[in-house]
Structure formats: C-alpha cells, structure tokens
C-alpha cells in the first residue's frame, strides 16, 4: 500500500524536521511526503527547501489557512490513501505499518486512525486511550464514532489516513472556518462511512507548541461551533441520527455556550443550554456551564460596583 503524507506548514521552523524525520523513520516505506508551506514568515521554508530526498515534494502558497494547505496536498497526491501530520507533531515508527494492516483487514471504509497522546505544556503525557471505551490495543471497525468522541475526539489531525475517494464524495477541508475544521471533516466522514481504529497511541500531539492559530482571538463566525446546531437540526430532519450523534453535538454546543459566557453573552448561552437540557450523557457539564453564566454575571456586577 502506498501513502501520500500531507504536512501543512506555517511558521514551525523549530519542529518541522522532527515531523518529517518521524515519517522517514517509518517501518513501512511506501509513501511520498507533500509539504505545503502556507506562507511562512520564519525559516520554515528554508528548512524544508534544503532537504534533498526523492520522497519529498514541496509546495508553497500565500497564507490561506490549514484547510487550504491540506486540500492542496490532497489535490497533488499521487497515491490513493492520504495521511495527515501537523508540522509540530510526530508519529511512532509503526504508524503507517499499522494503518496498512488495518486497510488490508478492513477495506472500503471512510477513515483509518490510531489513538494518540497529548503532550501538555507541563510536559505531562495525556493518552487519549484512557478516554474511550476500547480495551488496550483493540483494533477494528468503530461501532459509533460519536459515542467514542463525546469526551475527547477519537481522531486527531495527526493520527488519521483517509482514502482519496472519500474527499471526492464529501469534499475537502472547509475553507470558510479557521477553527475546528478537522472536527467538521471527521463529523462528515462518520455520517457517511464506518471508521477503522487501532487503540494504540502511535501519534503524538504537542499541546505546548506556540500555535499561531490558537493564539489568535477566536473568530466565532469562522469556527465549527458556530454552526454545530444547524448540523444537528439538519441531520435530525433526515431521521437517521443516533442518540450518540445528538449527544456528541450537544457536547460541542456546551463548548459553544462556554465561549459565549466568556464573551459575556450569558443570556444567549443560557438559552442554548436550556434547549438541550434533556441531555443524558452531558447533564453534569451542561448544568455546570449553565450555573457558571450566573456566576460570571455576579463577578462582573461586583467589579462594576
């Protein structure tokens, strides 16, 4: 099996070689690497341009965002399976070998992924495996992606391989949003396909990296959470959604409410939470968010006095 590894790159001069080396060190060697420099202003371009490896192809574009960079990589891929790796993350050596085995065992599915670990700012490792219901080292077709993603996403942008034909059906990464674009993609895939998963942590997501995208003030209208409720309503109209899909989307709506509260839009947040008060799996977090809106109001009132 041959893979195209797409690495979107924007101002990651300190980390890009680590990401690339984690691909070059794979035990499965049938792949190409496409690096899409999204208008970096540091030395990222110089770092990758100096590489002399026949497996690596480099593209450069004006800054257009990570979705545009990923889509450019997809459109230039020579192979049918697209793997994604962010420029500040890395794989363990057996990531592609594991994915290759999963594709052979479970062909014709929408995505193939492994678990991952998050390295926090304090250096602590937080494995995503502890937040799903699978046994250690479990592999197979996921019964319900949304059930397993209520607490934390089952898939990360550095732990997934997607058949190229899937993008032909559901489209590429959304250009209109700049935050949560990966969640939008996993959601669309899970609504149309089965997902194959290995509960081995074979990718590392570094949460301590200076990520320009997360440092910017959230543009609400360009975030996944801004239209989560519309997605939920539209899918419910079709009458084919599972209870876990609804609970997953409610968990995203609670995040939206928290954001609204942080912006002092307490009434709007409470109205949103009240609409989904009958949730079963998110009851405690919803109630906590609801009560926090009143607490913040009191704190702000006290400051004014």
Structural class: alpha/beta
Determine the number of helices (DSSP H or I, runs of at least 4 residues).
12
CATH fold description of the largest domain: Spore Coat Polysaccharide Biosynthesis Protein SpsA, Chain A
Mean pLDDT: 92
Name given to the CATH architecture of the largest domain = Alpha-Beta Complex
Strand content: 15-25%
**Tally of individual domains:** 2
CATH class of the largest domain: Alpha Beta
Q: Give unreliable regions as ranges.
A: 211-216
CATH superfamily caption of the largest domain: Spore Coat Polysaccharide Biosynthesis Protein SpsA, Chain A
- The helix content, as a percent range, equals 40-55%
The value of Rg in angstroms is 20 Å
Shape: globular
Number of strands: 10
Largest sheet: 10 strands, mixed
């Amino acid at each position: 099996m041959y893979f195209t590894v797409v690495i979107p790159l924007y101002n990651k001069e300190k980390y890009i070689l680590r990401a690339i080396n984690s691909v070059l060190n794979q035990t499965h060697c049938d792949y190409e690497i496409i690096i899409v420099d999204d208008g970096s202003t540091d030395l990222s371009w110089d770092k990758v341009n100096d590489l002399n490896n026949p497996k690596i192809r480099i593209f450069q574009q004006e800054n257009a965002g990570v979705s545009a960079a990923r889509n450019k990589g997809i459109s230039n891929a020579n192979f049918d399976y697209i793997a994604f790796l962010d420029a500040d993350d890395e794989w363990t050596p057996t990531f592609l070998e594991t994915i290759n085995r999963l594709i052979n065992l479970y062909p014709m599915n929408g995505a193939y992924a492994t678990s991952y670990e998050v390295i926090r700012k304090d250096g602590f490792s937080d494995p995503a495996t502890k937040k799903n219901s699978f046994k250690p080292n479990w592999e197979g077709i996921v019964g319900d992606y949304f059930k397993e993603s209520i607490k934390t996403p089952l898939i990360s942008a550095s732990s997934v391989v997607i058949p190229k034909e899937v993008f032909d059906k559901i489209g590429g990464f959304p250009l209109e949003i700049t935050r949560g674009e990966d969640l939008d993609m996993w959601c669309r895939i899970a609504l149309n396909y089965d997902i194959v998963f290995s509960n081995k942590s074979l990718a590392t997501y570094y949460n301590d990296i200076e990520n320009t995208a997360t440092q910017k003030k959230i543009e609400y209208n360009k975030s996944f959470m801004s239209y989560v409720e519309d997605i939920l309503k539209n899918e419910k109209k079709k009458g084919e959604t599972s209870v876990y899909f609804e609970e997953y989307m409610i968990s995203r709506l609670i995040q939206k409410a928290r954001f609204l509260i942080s912006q002092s839009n307490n009434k709007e947040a409470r109205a949103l939470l009240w609409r989904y008060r009958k949730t079963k799996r998110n009851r405690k977090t919803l109630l906590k968010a609801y009560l926090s809106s009143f607490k913040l109001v009191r704190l702000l009132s006290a400051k004014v006095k």
